[in-house]
Amino acid sequence: MKKSSSGLSAALIVVVTTFALAQDAEPAPGPHGGVVRQAGGVTVEVAFEREGAQVFVIGADGRPVDLGEASGTIELRFREAGRDPASAALKPTRERGPKHLQARLGGLARLPEGQATAAVRLTGVPRVEGGTLSVEVPFRLARNIEYVCPMRCVPPAAQPGKCARCRMDLVVAPFIYACPMHPEVTSRSPSDACWTCKMRLEKRVEGQQGGHGRAGGHDHGGGQGGGHGGH
User: Could you tell me which CATH class the domain 35-138 is placed in?
Assistant: First the structure.
């Protein structure tokens, strides 16, 4: 009886731990490769680039919310002791169609991922009660996104669809480029070099570890690196 009870307890621990890990897992990137959060019945996506941040709001119907009349602020809070927060105003873009908000933030080019959080506050947001939204997200560069067959039958595609060979639905595979020796140095562009050792960055698929793992296969010098330059 004791042996059976111990086995049941062990199984329960595994289930609880797995559930906790699933709860803590970061959601998949949004349509623009950014970090997503739910607030006010809508989805807020914050996409960090080297020169600043872009904020998108997606309604419950899956359509972008036009933020042409909205505004807000973004405050970057650093984990480094003694470093003051950096803040900037979020303003609508001038592009055609549904507008999103953007802000310029200096100093992001050399900021390792996970070393800061950003508090985003929006006002005047349509389709949201009271028009205000507040979210907090970790600093993480926006990911490139491609679509792959779960069975790896065909090369990655730029658009969703079905595998031409096994007919399975293609799944989202977010990735970024990172230094093989200094994985904290990341970029969305394969043409960038590590600012520490000057090595060429390699493709790293989301969920894989940096360094000398399978992230880029070390054949970016002639194969994959050039092939993914257009993403």
Answer: mainly beta
